[in-house]
TrEMBL record:
The protein's name in its UniProt record: Glycosyltransferase, GT2 family
Alphabetical list of Gene3D superfamilies matching this protein: Spore Coat Polysaccharide Biosynthesis Protein SpsA, Chain A
Keyword Transferase: yes
Domain of life, source organism: Bacteria
InterPro entries cross-referenced by the UniProt entry: Galactosyl_T_C, Nucleotide-diphossugar_trans
Sequence similarity: Belongs to the glycosyltransferase 2 family.
Ranges annotated as biased composition (Basic and acidic residues): 144-157
SUPFAM superfamilies reported in the protein's UniProt record: Nucleotide-diphospho-sugar transferases
């Protein structure tokens, strides 16, 4: 299989992006290209990212009311395919790749190109004083995949059918399979909904979903709120879009938490914001809904 690209979208998180770059440069197989899409962040350049072979930075779309995550991913994949990639790995800017991540994705996509493949992700604790290790092999000491998603052992893969378990933190696709899906729906802006929409769209197009144990990633720590009240408007807007497309609301766990806090209320066709004041929450690791 020739032409393996890694695509990352970023706004801020410059240190996380640089650490990801180092991890990719230290893996058992280097990507043929590394495509970074900067969203409203002129500080991200080829020079600031690093010197991995064929690192390309594109300054992507902007949108009012939130970051255009879906559109930025689509742009990154489009540029990767135009550059000759047959296998495209999408990796969240916060994710450090395991040593075998690129090789494992390239292998499974080459053998099973009809499916979209995801790998287990470990949420790391805060880094030690000297930071996370540069050698991705040393990250295995922290290996503890998130329990809300499938976690096949190394050397194993699982076929999956539940679109609610798909996430865009780490996944890979063949170029032809990506084109069958049409990519992410760009109606979504900001946090939430576009991952599950993409998985449902893939299944509707006859594309399978799967999990591969050797493609492990490690999510660098950063403070977040649980529930993510700072994304409340995004979740309500994107939830309505999802409901219009699929007949049900996503992110039910978060919405129920917002209801408990008095921030949203149930209405005949879903959920709406209340007049409650914004309340503060402790910054704690928040698992996906």
């Amino acid at each position: 299989m020739s032409g393996v690209a890694v695509v990352t979208i970023a706004h801020g998180r410059h240190e996380h992006l640089a650490a990801q770059h180092l991890g990719l440069a230290s893996g058992t197989e280097l990507p043929d290209s590394y495509v970074v899409v900067a969203m409203d962040d002129p500080g991200i350049t080829e020079h600031s990212v690093g010197s991995l072979h064929r690192t390309v930075v594109h300054h992507g779309p902007t949108a009012h009311g939130g970051l255009p995550l879906a559109a930025a991913r689509n742009l990154g994949v489009r540029r990767a395919i135009e550059g000759g990639a047959d296998v495209v790995v999408l990796l969240d800017v916060d994710c450090l790749p395991g040593a075998e991540l690129v090789a494992a994705y390239a292998d499974v996509v080459g053998r099973r190109p009809e499916s979209i493949w995801s790998g287990p992700v470990t949420y790391l604790p805060p880094p030690p004083p000297d930071g996370y290790p540069d050698d991705p092999r040393e990250l295995e000491d922290w290996d503890d995949p998130h329990p809300a998603r499938p976690m096949p052992d190394r050397g194993q893969h699982l076929d999956a059918t539940d679109p609610d378990l798909f996430w865009s933190l780490s996944f890979a696709t063949h170029r032809a399979t990506w084109e069958r899906t049409g990519g992410f729906c760009e109606d979504y802006v900001g946090y939430g909904g576009e991952d599950t929409d993409f998985a449902r769209t893939a299944i509707a197009a006859g594309v399978g979903l799967g999990w591969i144990g050797d493609a492990r990633a490690y999510h660098q720590h950063h403070p977040v709120s649980s529930p993510p009240v700072e994304h409340l408007n995004d979740i309500l807007r994107n939830g309505r879009i999802y409901a219009e497309r699929w007949g049900q609301w996503p992110m039910a766990g978060w919405l129920q938490e917002f209801e408990r806090l008095g921030l949203v209320r149930r209405v005949p066709h879903g959920w709406a914001r209340t007049t409650a004041s914004t309340i503060s929450t402790a910054a704690t690791p928040a698992p996906p809904p």
